[in-house]
Amino acid sequence: MIINFMPVAPLPSPLPCPRCPLNANPRYRSLAAKEVAFMTRFKRGERHVPAGETVLAEGAAHAHLYTVLEGWALRYKTAEDGQRQILNFVFPGDMIGLQGPLLGKTDHSVEALTPLRLCVFDTAKLWALYQAFPELGFDITWLASREERFLDANLLSIGRRSAVQRVGYLIADLIERSRRSAGDAGSILPFPLTQQDVSDALGLSVVSVNRAIRRLKALGLMGWGRGHVEALDVAALRRFAGLDGPDERKRPFI
Amino acid sequence: MIINFMPVAPLPSPLPCPRCPLNANPRYRSLAAKEVAFMTRFKRGERHVPAGETVLAEGAAHAHLYTVLEGWALRYKTAEDGQRQILNFVFPGDMIGLQGPLLGKTDHSVEALTPLRLCVFDTAKLWALYQAFPELGFDITWLASREERFLDANLLSIGRRSAVQRVGYLIADLIERSRRSAGDAGSILPFPLTQQDVSDALGLSVVSVNRAIRRLKALGLMGWGRGHVEALDVAALRRFAGLDGPDERKRPFI
DNA sequence: CGTCCAGTTGACTATAGTCAAACACCGTGG
DNA sequence: CCACGGTGTTTGACTATAGTCAACTGGACG
What we know:
The structure is a homodimer. Chain A has a four-stranded antiparallel β-sheet with strand order 1-8-3-6. A four-stranded antiparallel β-sheet of chain A has the order 2-7-4-5. By secondary structure, chain A is of the alpha+beta class. The first copy, chain A, has nine helices and eleven strands. Chain A has helices spanning about 20-25, 35-40, 100-105, 125-130, 135-160, 165-180, 195-200, 205-220, 235-240; strands at about 45-50, 55, 65-70, 75-80, 85-90, 95, 110, 115-120, 190, 225, 230. In chain A, helix 4 (about 125-130) packs across helix 5 (about 135-160). The interface of A and B includes residues 87, 130 and 147 of A. The first copy, chain A, binds a DNA duplex through helix 8.
């Protein structure tokens, strides 16, 4: 079965902020008219990144800050011996590149998993945003804090769970986040990760990931095919993996 | 050898902000007079927590927000089976409890490793701080972003390094952070973690941690005794563990 | 002097990693 | 339309790293 991932047609022109797709998502907290007006001036343009390409490279100084409008990406670091560790996944509404303007350099890289549509901001204007709209600054802290919570959970998962549980955890989590950003789309969901990606995210070998996946399939908890997963019993999968109920509250974005 | 950790004598009265010990640390970015004046109003009082006690419990709603003035703490999560995973360590100048007011609940617990002196703020006033001093809001985002970077690094360590390297990494990192918060204090440093703590931070068993420590001792990279470590060759230890050079820039605090 | 806790050690087990080969699917070009 | 190549997945056999269990040591403290 082939599932075309996200209809990122070669989009002609940048979307004006009032028609921002994020603002239309009922699961996201929408911005007030005044804020949208400000964002229009803050927005610099758009950037489209093909799947597999690098958005941001570790170490470099970056002039831009992004919010994902469409698509998935991943954040990773590379160890001395060349192995990579995926730190987290990036979904629509998430920001990319905050570390640069704050800490002076970015310690991780970001790569597109699917074609990506990014909203571009000038890092130099970040401070102006805090001054003009403290509530947006607050939202940025919110986003940073949420990222921290994801990392906390990943750390617990990698540090203390078995290979099968880890895989279940990751997939259940991604299913949830995917549905939240794109709306429920039946039980078969596009899933742009390879088993190699999963192993890089969980600190496992590809072989172990493969065996874990087939164990989860045998248990009837999920299905896996090229480019998609089947959400058979997400509640049971979450329970198996030690994930608690998803957070249903609306989330902000910038 | 016995090393008394931190001279937290039963301190009589809260320190006024102008005499805040953090502001005196040359490695920390000091606050402007106007900011100190604001913080004086923002500060609610102080809280002293004995070593081993809980500062903040997972799940609960907390009315307070803290900045560590003196002492070490650790942030951890508990897995379903009761095992704990230490997420990160908390040093003077770091904030505790930000997740509560931002995300609505705290997903981790915090425990004092040494006697702790905390500066107490009302979470309800956090938003007022963003409005009155956007630059302080910016600094809070800075702190959140820094925490994220620590977690990124830990994730790489736990996911992709061997037991010995992980232990070396953690100890080298803690030596660096300890020195930064307290000033260099010779090669023998107070170190309030047990090997059990180290194993909980690294997703290892105590036995493995013990063997790793003696391997590092045999290599002449460090020393270990009850309540202290000996920094024999920190540069070599960092290299061995895959840590890059420490960040020398001044850090903010609230 | 005895208890307690942290640390240490050895023997054995288990989980996950490595290596290597085969397979399945998809896209390409003849 | 089919052969071919590449990538991603699957499997088995073997290895290695770290975990488990259990006993013991040694210092600190009452």
